[in-house]
Amino acid sequence: MHARYLVRFDDICPTMNWSLWAPIEEVLHACGVQPILAVVPDNRDPKLQVEPPRPDFWVWVREKQAAGWSIAMHGYQHLYETTDAGLLGINARSEFAGLPFERQREKLLRAVEVFHSHGIRPEAFVAPGHSFDQHTLLVLQELGITVISDGFFLYPRVHQGMLWVPQQMWQFRPAPLGVWTVCFHHNRLGARDLRRLIVDIQRFARFTTSLQDIVHTYRNRGSRPIDILFARLWRLVLRAKLAAKAALAATSEAVL
Question: Is the pLDDT at 158 greater than 90, yes or no?
Fold first, then answer.
């Protein structure tokens, strides 16, 4: 038995770093990897405005979905409105968590309409900053989106009317079992990280799978005790890493 990996790229939008994306797309095609593209439907985040907008962006997204790549809805405008960490409790900032139901419904409906206007069906939801709440889940189900790419479980599970496909890694690591989504933010990659990403895709390609296959395999798998235990342990590890990173950054600033 071996772990299975999903590859996810966040912050996909017309003004992303296309120069860095070109070699990534090339190796994905060469290795037959079908990733999840987390697309921001109406980006207003200045940090994601890296290059001039690609004129045929939505044609490109539509072509990728037709080729078997999965398209996820990455929020609406990628702008944080609250300091609510939401259900996962990881980041104290959110585009959705803490907002009234109707306000969330308005934003998510507009997001879905952007995709539909370009002939694209969002297959899953990816919340910016891992932050969303119960209202978010209810609206997504109302809009026909029942897959969420998030959570720190060992395997996908059906919970609260949604299929939760876990996202636990930010770089490939060998694992003996489980389903692992490895998330990348390619806009930020330096030359060394880009080389590592390309090598890792080539190395792990035979263990990757598609979101469609995962949904088909786990669509009826309910929650089990191992899911809760693993999620709690993984969240503790992640919080410890984030705290250590923040402490290191504070120390560096103090030295400067």
Answer: yes
